[in-house]
Write a structure and sequence with these properties.
about 325 residues, alpha/beta, 6-stranded parallel sheet, oxidoreductase, NAD binding, 6PGD_dom2, oxidoreductase activity, HIBADH-like_NADP-bd
Amino acid sequence: MSPQILWIGLGNMGRGMVKNLVEKGSLDKPVLLYNRTRKRSEDLAATLAPQGKTEIVDTIEEGVKRADIIFTILSNDAAVRAVFESALAKKDVGDGLKNKLFVECSTIHPDTTEQLAQDVAAAGAQFVASPVFGAPPVADAGQLIFVPAGPKAAIERLRPYIKGVMGKAEIPFEDQPYGQALKLKLIGNTFVLNMVSVLGEGLTLAEKSGVGAAPVKQFLDGLFGGPYSAYGDRMLGGAYYKMAEPLFSADNARKDIGHAAALARAAGMELKNAAVVDEYLKVVADHAGGDRGDVAGIYGAVRKNAGLKYENDA
């Protein structure tokens, strides 16, 4: 008999993860869904076949009371703390938290994660910090890389839903501090954000210098490929300002780069590139809105700073 799973958070990462969990997770019970905006749960449930593979719950407390494993993936530290405050409210869920497993997949500060783990342990439940690497299309394809940290026994309860279900691999921190997973996630995201910044500058310089963006894109495809090509497509194709919902919002990117910079300061060093990235993201947020502007809009920010239009009219 499979465990009862509750999923909290149906942003553009959570939706793809749930789709794969429902389709490949070998579950004999519907996945319980909770999202602050109920319509998002309804819209997702309507796309998943066959019907009956999901069930919407109206409150976090109701879902936690019924669940054995609770997944959370939310936009920022404040949202995560609010969810866990409700989830661990014993006056609402009774004393039935023992042996429940909370799997926290959001990108938050390591200190936030450590505090959540303490709160969960105090309530008698298990906790795994497991941020993931991969953009929303990667989540849709079930090809995420999970970074689980915590007791090995708790991570083993998560593993049936990683490889071949929601992910393709893991980078585990078994029996290590929960914050280790978040440190790696933040470091990894600096690679992504620095790459996007370099791409935006390079493509804009190519246009301003007369080389043209097309030869630069050929160079990217031939030498780097992968995310370089994907972000180059989002920039040159105009998706960075045309998409209805950002794949990685400016607000979330600024949160991540801020956490990474704080992590570096605590370690006695400075991430100089972080300040450059954040300045570009401020332009994206001012132009498109922090929750609507995509990180690929850094290209538009570079263009704007260089005297060109933010939009490339692709």
